[in-house]
Amino acid sequence: MLFNVKSVSSLIVVASLANAKAVNKRADVTGATLYVYGSDVNGPAVFYADGKRKAYFGNSPVSEVTGTQTNITFGAPDDTTTPWAITANSTTVTFNETLNMYINPTGFDQVGFASAASVPSGDITSGFAWFGKSVAYAANSSDYKLMFSGVPTNTTGVYALYWNGDRTLAPTGSFPVTVKRTAPTFPSLS
Ligand SMILES: *[C@@H]1O[C@H](CO)[C@@H](O)[C@H](O)[C@H]1NC(C)=O
Ligand SMILES: *[C@@H]1O[C@H](CO)[C@@H](O)[C@H](O)[C@H]1NC(C)=O
Ligand SMILES: *[C@@H]1O[C@H](CO)[C@@H](O)[C@H](O)[C@H]1NC(C)=O
Ligand SMILES: *[C@@H]1O[C@H](CO)[C@@H](O)[C@H](O)[C@H]1NC(C)=O
Ligand SMILES: *[C@@H]1O[C@H](CO)[C@@H](O)[C@H](O)[C@H]1NC(C)=O
């Protein structure tokens, strides 16, 4: 009797693990909108702002940037060697070249987007991976880092998205955030 109960529950565990994996794969293939969570931040989407071609998050466009701003979808392959290209989640904006997300892994710099030929020296476009539903940077298979930060802009409730590769360089007012593919389930308070 006890034996039977045990084998049934292990079967259930195996089945739900298989489901979780299938859900992961589907998200990786179709791309993902990324949402940001932190102490005062309840899931606004990561968006793209032209000019410096950098990443921001918040519920409104950022005022200190000129040019196009648009919500984006990230190609998120299940493979740390392939860059994460972005597409505009918009009927009016199309990028004129393939833009990949990049970070400076060892500094404190804003997350940006660049064509393969114009990634700033020292910055990298590979190594991005899912850690559960969170975006990580994996220097290798045993070193997953989740070190995104928010830095206030001049627009209330809108922040620049940074990678915190060196916390000694983080300015006053910056704060750690998690970048996830999970949409918020309640209205943002900010
Ligand atoms: C992104 O989408 C959100 C929700 O639809 C919207 O409030 C916001 O203004 C959009 N941001 C940009 C830069 O288009
Ligand atoms: C992206 O576009 C889809 C379809 O228009 C919309 O449902 C979704 O809310 C958008 N996401 C963001 C973050 O704007
Ligand atoms: C795309 O537009 C940007 C900004 O205007 C420009 O710097 C870049 O050279 C353009 N790329 C191509 C392939 O035309
Ligand atoms: C993984 O990367 C970290 C940081 O770059 C390094 O310290 C560590 O030795 C690496 N481990 C392996 C197994 O390559
Ligand atoms: C905010 O505005 C001030 C004054 O215009 C400017 O010096 C500062 O760089 C701006 N902050 C950011 C994050 O752009």
Topology:
Elements: H1 2-30, E1 35-38, E2 41-49, E3 54-58, E4 69-74, E5 86-88, E6 100-102, E7 108-110, E8 112-114, E9 128-131, E10 134-140, E11 143-145, E12 148-152, E13 158-164, E14 175-180
Antiparallel strand pairs: 1-2, 1-14, 2-3, 2-4, 3-13, 4-5, 6-8, 7-13, 9-10, 10-11, 12-13, 12-14
The protein binds 2-acetamido-2-deoxy-beta-D-glucopyranose (NAG) (5 copies).
One 2-acetamido-2-deoxy-beta-D-glucopyranose binds at residues 45, 47, 59-61, 69-71.
Keywords: Signal
Signal peptide: 1-22
Question: Can you describe what's shown?
Answer:
The protein has 190 residues and is of the alpha+beta class. The protein has one domain. The chain is 15% helix and 36% strand. The chain has 1 helix and 14 strands, in the order αββββββββββββββ. The chain has one helix at residues 2-30, and strands at 35-38, 41-49, 54-58, 69-74, 86-88, 100-102, 108-110, 112-114, 128-131, 134-140, 143-145, 148-152, 158-164, 175-180. The strands form 3 sheets. The chain has a 6-stranded antiparallel beta barrel with strand order 1-2-3-13-12-14. The protein has a 3-stranded antiparallel sheet with strand order 9-10-11, with no helix packed on it. It has a two-stranded antiparallel sheet with strand order 6-8. Strand 1 and strand 2 (41-49) form a beta hairpin. The longest helix is centred in the first third of the chain and has 29 residues, at 2-30. It starts with a helix and ends in a 10-residue tail after the last strand. It binds 2-acetamido-2-deoxy-beta-D-glucopyranose (5 copies).
